[in-house]
Fold this protein.
Amino acid sequence: MNYYLTRIALCIASIGISASAYALGTDKAKGTQVVQPASPVDVNTCLACHTPVQKLHSRGAHKDVNCASCHTVPTNHTTAPSKETRPATRFDFGSCSQCHTEQHKELMDPKYHYMWAKKGGNTSYSYIQDPVDGWPLEVQYRLPRFHVGVMTDFMANRSDGRFMYKDKTDQGKAIEHHWDALEDVHPEKGLLNKGDLVGMAWRPHKGREATQESRCLVCKTTDNILEYRTGYEPNPKGYDFTTRNIPFFKKSQNSFNCNLCHDPHSAEPRIVIDPIIESMSGKLNKDSVYNKYVGKKPWTKLEIVEMGVRGYPRRIGILKDYDSNYMCGQCHNGAFRYVARKGKYGKNLTAADTEKLGIAFYGTEFFRTPLEINAKLKERGWTNGVDPLTGATRYNAADHHHLEIITNSKHGAAGVGCTDCHFAKKSDGSLEHQPSLVKEKVQNTCMRSECHGPGSKTNWTDPGQPLYLIETIQQEYRVRTNKMEKDAKVARDMLIKVKNKEATMPEKELQALKDAYSQHLTTRYFYFTDYSKGFHDPDGFTQTASKVIFDLRKANKDAQAVIKMNPKQ
């Protein structure tokens, strides 16, 4: 009875059952056995009322699983159904691990994280500071996270010191239940973050600011999925798009959850996060890359299932194919937050504004590169405001565009999914449920793949071969990124001088300089959160970086020829 969820932020590369370990239909995960509850219920009685669940349950690998395996059903629920007699739903890993013991064991295994730690950590690829506050942006993305403990991380990172680790050693563990590791050290704050302890509970993975709304939390847990409303309307009966983070934190008990990617009723692959469901449903974003090519490789079809109403709508999406790019991509995507955008006359866009044009208010259009984003939003006249330092227009407010990059890349076109690289392939051909850095497991990913493994044209036999190629591609990323930053600094310095009236410049050259810098800003934040450092789509990055550098250098040269410093007063 797990249904809807919403919004974006970091983390899915997997949980539950992997593509090769769990086939569609009635096949069961390798090495698993259905464990029935001590007090089973009459499934047919349940399904007689819960028709969406009946549709899913009857066709999948879980059709022999009793409802009481995951739900505690009060005896009077069938005779007097109400809010008070609703069954309780289990969202913990233990619910799935009743049968899937091996997958649960793998999820909790920290071996790849510790392999990384033994190397002494990876140096930052490029030390780039935020021009506003001087913060080294790159350092935020250095450590591999435990997916199973991502909600624990987030609660500590994003509450300004409200929720803190009881014991700092827990930061190096896979945490199933947040409250085993965290405590509310300022309960007197009620619905507010602590507000003045930024960094005190900081775990150096990602993020330093406080998230005030639920939209960034729903990727981290599905504990609140039954109370979360689809869409952007208020939900007085539960949670919605703008619910504050503290009640959301307080209600949840478990990080992540297997049912984020695997439907508990049918065991089919699914997505539950609304911006991606909306983007792929075909109702909106019809002109997006996905909706143009849906049904062709790698643009797998999506079946929308309305899960019933508790006074508000909820829905999920069932994937036709077991494509981990979309399962992982429901969190790892660059959904546009048009809620933060302005139209041609400076007015904030509303859901009605975007829907008139057939565009999702909060979703992705599957643009491959930031150049496409910049050009399309510039054409529409939709901005993300003005850069406070330079006065240049900002167009892109989204980040971590992993889904868009992968699906549009050469790997994506070949059918490669996130789990092919981030899950190790075991000797029996099934995938190990432990998402982590690719470099720690190339022997059991690239070197066991159909593309580069035994019998392939590449036929890698030494781990140094894939690692050398990865490092070579990432070195190009490092070099080109630093070149972009240096050229952007030249442009930024001139724009600041003009904005502060320390210098003047003809309008033609000034506008060209602003346009080149705007394009750089879109590119900077598009790739900053591509943790692969260019490896997900080397061709797309190279083409983008080359154009950004060329345009910056031309605009800089033309501006330097005409800029005039004003005399000091």
